[in-house]
Write a structure and sequence with these properties.
Glutamine Phosphoribosylpyrophosphate, subunit 1, domain 1, single chain, Rossmann fold, alpha/beta, about 35% helix, 25 strands, about 575 residues
Length: about 575
């Protein structure tokens, strides 16, 4: 959603903050701001735009001081204007705050604070935190008490960092991530380890209801009741910081091209952890799978993958979970799939499933995420940081891992486990089609609508392909089960339509071919993704022949590339699609 960062040490804070914010821009990016403290004076600059642009025009990294906070915003409350950008200041400009999350009771708090004389300068929910801290500090003259009283008044979800002109930095979290980076002589507070990994690999992952206070002499931790707590330092892997674009123009393109390695990595699991995970699954009476966006498409595929091993599962979209959650009980498991492990809809689903006695399994990319912590057992997809907002490599990694789990549970000897080399070859062949796909994208980039059709296992891939095209290129795209075309959507097809068909030569081939004839006779242009040549296609993307069951792993890649090049053709930035954020931590 938003990213927050704080720094207290001996270095020039503002340049460190800007560097950290650039690494976390994937979390939200409509405006940016920083505040520092120099000789007891609070200085702030903020504006609308991406970090590099605003920094260039306002010189954010020129603010002096060794203590500061920074923020990139993804607007929820209040428009995208300078005054709503963080940091937000208390009335007397002695306290500045950056916040990620939603303060649900901000209206009521704002009324109360306004009545006691506080003047608000923004339309955000976040600003109440600065004024609450000021109010309680005036009464108590104690930063620790002000933090505790403020946290107790907030409902909703939050991670915030505040700086006081007395040279103190504080943070608190509830249902939003906040991590302390511990350097040699300095401390960081950040939404993601990427915010400080260039400086230190020592991190403290705060728990819900934790408060951290860093002053000139000490770092101390408290819970919301004011009781002192201790938190352990974790050494995090440096390679998690490998978030450079390398030779690629965009993170998204780099991440698409990493997939021949990442799918193999996802199957490298600790034996004991994997056994425990599979054991919980096999014992469950009912299995439900949930996820959002791309991860939900993995869940839909998982349902089909598991059913081939006679394991019946139900899928529930995380944002819809609350309306059907009474299905779960203590004999159920909920398998939650999430790259970030922080998506609010997913976390909410898991919490309600837990409350009903269900066991929680999860598949995550971030082992320190809230979802992993809430789970009875979790597996990591190990695909490395995914910076592009639209999920690409994390999707195929989730799928590969789900196939692998099915092999273990179903004791299969001819599943993905024995096909790794063949898959790597197939993926690299598909990736070599990059420039061919770019040419096709250039032919169809002016289209208003794109339809993607396929049957059986290919259907969830159609949904995922359409999501990629929508997210990246802003072209309306719809994924459909090919057999459903005749039940309505056919009315939309005419000689201006572009229809992409996932059409490998497998058990779905003949039926899908007859759908293609129906579309073709209405003048639509057909893009065929197939391993079998067919002159019915106007454009063919030829994929290699692999085991029928595993096609989803390779056929999504041409769709990812197509979406990427459609974005480029339509002058959209594929790494940072408008209005979207990688980690959506609001419901
Ligand atoms: C956001 C992103 C999507 C992503 C979804 C789920 O909406 O824009 O690309 O698929 O969140 O993310 P998760 O981290 O839970 O897999």
């Amino acid at each position: 959603m938003c990213s927050i960062i704080g720094y207290k040490g001996n270095e020039h804070a503002s340049s460190i903050l800007i560097e950290g914010l650039k690494k976390m821009e994937y979390r939200g990016y409509d405006s940016v701001g920083i505040a520092t403290i120099k000789s007891g004076k609070l200085l702030t600059r903020k504006g609308v735009g991406k970090v590099a642009e605003v920094n260039k025009s306002l010189g954010l990294d020129e603010l002096p001081g060794n203590l500061g906070i920074g923020h990139t915003r993804w607007a929820t409350h209040g428009g995208i204007v300078d005054s709503n950008a963080h940091p937000h200041l208390a009335c007397d400009s002695t306290i500045a705050v950056v916040h990620n999350g939603i303060v649900e009771n901000y209206d009521e708090l704002k009324d109360e604070l306004t009545r006691s004389g506080h003047v608000f300068k923004s339309e955000t929910d976040s600003e109440v935190i600065a004024h609450l801290l000021e109010e309680y500090f005036e009464i108590t003259q104690d930063i620790r008490l002000s933090m505790i009283f403020t946290c107790k008044r907030l409902t909703g979800s939050f991670a915030f960092v505040a700086i006081f002109n007395s040279s103190t930095m504080c943070g608190a979290r509830y249902d939003e991530p906040l991590i302390v980076g511990v350097g040699n002589d300095d401390y960081f507070l950040s939404s993601d380890i990427l915010g400080f990994l260039n400086y230190t690999d020592r991190a403290i992952f705060l728990d819900n209801r934790d408060i951290v206070i860093i002053d000139d002499s000490d770092i101390s931790f408290f819970d919301f009741n004011g009781d002192r707590i201790s938190r352990r330092i974790t050494q995090v892997a440096w390679e998690l910081g490998d978030a450079d674009k390398g030779k690629y123009a965009h993170h998204t393109l780099k991440e698409i091209h990493e997939q021949q390695n990442t799918i193999v990595k996802s199957m490298k699991q600790n034996k004991k952890t994997l056994e425990r995970f599979c054991d919980i699954m096999t014992r469950a009476k009912n299995i439900y799978i949930t996820g959002s966006g791309t991860s939900y498409h993995s869940a839909l595929l998982a349902k089909q993958i598991f059913s081939k091993s006679k394991i019946h599962v139900e899928t529930i979209m995380s944002s819809e979970f609350q309306y059907s959650s009474d299905l779960l009980d203590e004999n159920s498991i909920l398998l939650a799939i999430s790259q970030s492990g922080e998506t609010a809809d997913v976390i909410q689903s898991v919490k309600s499933a837990k409350a009903m006695g269900a066991k929680i399994l999860s598949i995550v990319n971030i082992p320190t995420s809230s979802l992993a912590r809430l789970s009875d057992s979790y597996l990591e997809v190990n695909c490395g940081p995914e910076i592009g907002v639209a999920a690409t490599k994390s999707f195929t990694s989730q799928l590969a891992l789900l196939y692998y789990v099915t092999d273990i549970i179903g004791r299969k000897s001819n599943g993905i486990s024995t096909s790794k080399d063949m898959l790597v070859r197939a993926i690299s062949e598909v990736l070599e089609l990059d420039s061919k796909i770019e040419r096709i994208a250039n032919q169809i980039k002016g289209s208003r609508d794109v339809y993607i059709l396929g049957r059986s296992l290919h259907f969830p891939v159609c949904l995922e392909g359409a999501l990629k095209i929508k997210e990246l290129s802003y072209i309306h795209a719809e994924g459909m089960a090919a057999g459903e075309l005749k039940h309505g959507p056919l009315a939309l097809i005419d000689n201006g339509s572009i229809v992409i068909v996932i059409h490998p030569n497998d058990s779905t081939y003949v039926d899908t071919l007859s759908n293609i004839h129906t579309i073709k006779s209405r003048g639509a242009k057909i893009v065929g993704i197939s391993n079998k040549k067919n002159s019915i296609y106007d454009y063919q993307i030829t994929i290699p022949t692999i085991s029928e069951f595993l096609y989803p792993l390779i056929e999504i890649i041409p769709l990812q590339l197509l979406a990427y090049y459609l974005a480029i053709g339509n002058n959209a930035n594929p790494d940072y699609p408008r209005n979207l954020a990688k980690s959506v931590t609001v419901k």
